[in-house]
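Posting for a labmate who doesn't have an account.
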Amino acid sequence: MPHVSVHPEVLRDPFVFGPREGTAGTPSAVLMGVLLWDASNPLAIVGDQMVGLGDRVGQWEIVKIEETGIVIQQGGRQETVTTGSSLPTD
């Protein structure tokens, strides 16, 4: 019979949901949709919060809101996030 090593620190109860204790567990923010009330005050929904220009989601600042997505900035880095996509975690 082969020898099997079991490491309980990496096992988890399959009936308990959510992250393991001690893990980061921060859910990624997903762009749920863009609400263009008017060109001067566009809004978007990221995760469960409504955001506008200049608002922050984590370390990212919302710098542009378009019909198909948002443009976010962190330092000198800019990323475009389309509806249904997650914001970068790094």
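Reply:
Got it, the structure tokens are right above this. The chain has a mean pLDDT of 79.
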